[in-house]
Amino acid sequence: MARPALRLLSKEEVSEVHEESLRLLEEVGVFVDNVRALELLKEGGAHVEGKIAKIPRDLVLQCLSYVPKSLKLYYRDGKRYVRIGDDNVIFNPGSTAIKILDLKQSTTRPTVFRDLFDFAKLVDYLEYIGAQSTALIPNDVPLEIRDRVRLYPILKLSSKPIITGAFTIEGVQDMKDILEIVVGDVASRPIAIFDVCPSPPLKWSRLTAQNLMDCAYYGIPVEIIPMPQMGATAPVTIAGALVQHNAEALSGIVIAQLTRRGAPVIYGGSPCLFDMRWGTACISTPETALLTMGYVEIGKYYGIPTHAYVGLSDSKEIDYQAGLETFMGALLATMIGINVASGPGMLEFESTQSMEKLLIDNEACGIAFRMAKGFDVDEATLAMSLLREAHIRRHFLSSRHTLKWMRQETYIPRLLSRSIKERASLMKRARELVRKILEEHKPDELPSDVERELDRYFIDMCKRHGYSPKLD
Q1: How far is Cα of residue 291 from the mean position of the Cα atoms in its chain?
Q2: Which of 81, 217, 310, 333 could disulfide-link to 72, CB 3.0 to 4.6 Å?
Q3: pTM for this structure?
């Protein structure tokens, strides 16, 4: 198999970043604003002074050895699953957008609860977007339950696994209960991965530390997502930001494993470059891509699953910049083997989602998968028996070899135009196809008893917080 691969760091450079990260944790430590997390760290052998925990290298290495090398992420039916590990790649939309590009008005507006249903239905349809995500924050829902209400439309309208997360302390419990109504025990058949984000530089808030410990306690897979801003909340040098990123990820791994040995953890990230000219946090720069490559290779060095925010754009609209930045990230994901690749559909510094862009990005992911697949070099594909007839043939269109291999060898886009006659813009075609999918796609239904229980729990939960959702 001739298969392209992408690597950045030498073994010596990986080892150096690893050692410097251990030294940073041991000598400087992390700020942890959570009493229980500090207790766990102290009991595990960390030196705790106030809210600073200095973590010895032996404790870090011990906790790293407990992390599972891969995990199974199940579909809603509890039978099918995707394997998260090695170089397997699964794309999912980026999370927690506060705006959406309106399908009718072609302008951005605040996201609302109704949008979650359309988004879940579209993602369920797309073949190269392998997982759902709680992609939107519904601005018309009370703040304290905006995290947990996002699971409901997905579980109603899609069978795909989910990338999600809580942003309240109570959210993890409610979200766990919602998931268990549909799939049973979330530890034995996990359907969702929860994101937790340390605060750069080298801090864990009370909220995120608690979410991390709660997920670990329940056996829910968790993605630790450091967010260093190069030049602002991290060194401007990529190597310096990489050391900080790695130290933050390792500190989260320690807290998770001290909570529950063997807790499934994914080494993730959402780094960015702080643009000094405009004060913007840019996700899709070449420097961010290099930092992402670096930390993913560190994660693979540790032998644990990896995550990254890729396949998204900082552009405010679906234009050449959006295509360039999105495909750069999608190709990076498949070439380096990022296990969980979050981002398709996103615009404007990770704040806006677009169904049209997600549809276009689905094609970008398909192309990236095709390029990463490479091609076979063997007797059949070298086609020497066919080439020996080259002088007596006018073409190969009708040959058995062509008919056999054309679909195996060739990626056929659904949305991109290869027609001489096609004159409609890509954006127009995307908008029309999104509307068609939303009108015609019929997701698999939940068993009626499970659906009734899910509806009951969801309505009761909303009522407790003074919210009456419109579910029709």
Answers
A1: 16
A2: 81
A3: 0.96
From 315, 330, 230, select the one nearest 281 (Cα to Cα).
230
* Residue 187 confidence (pLDDT) above 70: yes
With cut-offs at 50, 70 and 90, classify the pLDDT of residue 347.
very high
For the cut 90, the answer to whether the pLDDT of residue 223 exceeds it is yes
CA distance 426 to 421: 14
Closest CA to 291 of 323, 321, 346, 332: 332
Among 35, 183, 148, CA closest to 458 = 148
Quote the tokens at residue 34: 């959570």
Q: For residue range 160-180, what is the model confidence (pLDDT) as tens digits?
A: 999 999 999 999 999 999 999
- The answer to whether 218 and 263 are in contact (CB under 8 A) is no
What CA–CA distance (Å, rounded) separates 72 from 84? Answer: 6
Question: 310, 369, 365, 364: which is closest to 342 by C-alpha?
Answer: 310
CATH fold label, 1-388+397-415+427-472: TIM Barrel (3.20.20)
Cα–Cα distance measured from residue 81 to residue 85, given in angstroms and rounded to the nearest whole number = 13
CA torsion sign for 363, 367, 373, 376 is positive
Separation between Cα atoms, residue 465 and residue 461, nearest integer Å? 7
* Cα–Cα distance, 120 to 125 (Å, whole number): 9
Helix axes 238-259, 286-302, angle to 10 degrees: 40
Do the bridges between strand 47-49 and strand 71-74 make them parallel or antiparallel, or are there none, so unpaired?
Answer: unpaired
Q: pLDDT tens across 30-73, in order?
A: 999 999 999 999 999 999 999 999 999 999 999 999 999 999 99
Q: pLDDT tens, 232-271?
A: 999 999 999 999 999 999 999 999 999 999 999 999 999 9
Question: What does the mean pLDDT of the chain come to?
Answer: 96
Q: What is the residue extent of each domain of the chain?
A: 1-388+397-415+427-472
Concatenate the DSSP letters of all residues of 403-419 into one string: HHHHHHH----SSS---
User: What is the C-alpha to C-alpha distance for residues 52 and 448, in angstroms, rounded to an integer?
Assistant: 51
Q: Closest by alpha carbon to 124, among 163, 161, 160, 74?
A: 160
59-78 core/surface letters (b: 16 or more CB in 10 A; e: else): bbebbbebbbeebbbbbbee
